[in-house]
């Protein structure tokens, strides 16, 4: 592996105002920032030399100080339903996953924020081998750009982004926020805030920070359990950040932003999917401005959870609805490929995912 500290920072890690400041420091007019962003995000060039309306001197300065991050495609899987899953190699040799999901309302890209994960959820392949390193903002941005390049060939565009890939986004907080601002910027990828969703397993201090950012971005909590005991067995993070305190942070977020949140609830056969669990969940979230997204769990060969039967999923949904909960069952996509988060990396890059 190459030491990531030896690699120049990605040009995609620079927010617009930061790029203007860099130009000023390099005695260049700040209007050049608009031209550079146009080359990066509208024309999507892969070389500084392609930025032909910039002077050679400025192109050389950019090349000396920054890397125009490109991701090497190691594996590309395409599902019958149109889902595309990429395994990308980073410049230091590590790999990450990115998924393009097609919906009636547009194309959504699920991005990764870390190489591996240290949260240790017992149902997730992403945590196999632990955390290797955080991604810089530009490496997250580059995933959306690569997805867009894949869609360019069929005259389609990325219409929404979900930050639910490998890693815990709030464990890489500052690069995450920088990434969000860049893809939301009119000068960047211009993806509307309400078409961007960030999910966390529940790093409570960062939930308060995120509320105070005053971003109009959709926010989701990976809940997966209605009680402390069950959540701790599924998600060790619950030992550090308890369910009770998590609910307090959720209420703060809603009060501060006025926005509804989504609770992601994976259904695991015989663990958290019975009628009594549905009743407990309804009680836990009563009075909270929220939506529950029920997720029939994907099989992951490295884990031993049993898939909840179809009829039980609908029964669980019916109980929540009877309790006044706004609930949907997530549409499954990419079922004929390695759809579960971290699954493709675990299969193809075993050296990275061993403990």
From TrEMBL:
Its cofactor is [4Fe-4S] cluster. It is found in: Cytoplasm. It is an enzyme of class 2 (transferase). Its main location: cytoplasm. GO terms for biological process: rRNA base methylation; tRNA methylation. Residues 103-336 form the Radical SAM core domain. The keyword Metal-binding applies. Its EC number is 2.1.1.192. Reaction proceeds by a ping-pong mechanism involving intermediate methylation of a conserved cysteine residue. This is Probable dual-specificity RNA methyltransferase RlmN. It comes from Anaerobacillus isosaccharinicus.
């Amino acid at each position: 592996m190459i030491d990531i500290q030896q690699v120049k920072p990605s040009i995609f890690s620079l927010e617009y105002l930061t790029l203007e400041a860099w130009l000023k420091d390099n005695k260049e007019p700040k209007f050049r920032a608009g031209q550079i962003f146009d080359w990066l995000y509208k024309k999507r060039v892969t070389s500084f030399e392609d930025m032909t309306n910039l002077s050679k001197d400025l192109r050389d300065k950019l090349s000396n100080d920054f890397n125009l991050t490109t991701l090497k495609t190691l594996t590309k899987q395409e599902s019958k339903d149109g889902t595309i899953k990429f395994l990308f190699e980073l410049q230091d040799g590590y790999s990450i996953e990115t998924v393009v999901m097609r919906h009636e309302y547009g194309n959504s890209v699920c991005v990764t924020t870390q190489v591996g994960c240290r949260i240790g959820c017992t149902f997730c392949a992403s945590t196999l081998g632990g955390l290797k390193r955080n991604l810089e903002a530009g490496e997250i941005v580059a995933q959306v750009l690569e997805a867009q390049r894949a869609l360019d060939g069929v005259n389609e565009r990325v219409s929404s982004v979900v930050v639910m890939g490998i890693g815990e986004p709030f464990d890489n907080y500052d690069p995450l926020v920088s990434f969000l601002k860049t893809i939301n910027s009119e000068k960047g990828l211009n993806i509307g805030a309400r078409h961007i969703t960030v999910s966390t397993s529940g790093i409570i201090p960062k939930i308060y920070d995120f509320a105070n950012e005053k971003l109009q971005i959709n926010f989701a909590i990976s809940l997966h359990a209605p009680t402390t005991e069950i959540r701790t067995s599924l998600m060790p993070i619950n030992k550090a950040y308890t369910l009770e305190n998590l609910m307090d942070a959720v209420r703060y977020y809603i009060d501060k932003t006025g926005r509804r949140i989504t609770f992601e609830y994976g259904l695991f056969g015989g663990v958290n999917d019975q009628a009594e669990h549905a009743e407990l969940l309804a009680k836990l979230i009563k009075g909270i401005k929220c939506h529950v997204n029920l997720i029939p769990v994907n099989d992951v060969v490295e884990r031993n959870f049993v898939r909840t039967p179809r009829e039980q999923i609908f029964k669980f949904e019916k109980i929540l609805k009877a309790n006044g909960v706004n609930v949907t069952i997530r549409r499954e996509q990419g079922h004929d490929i390695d759809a579960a988060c971290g699954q493709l990396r675990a299969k193809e890059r075993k050296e990275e995912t061993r403990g």
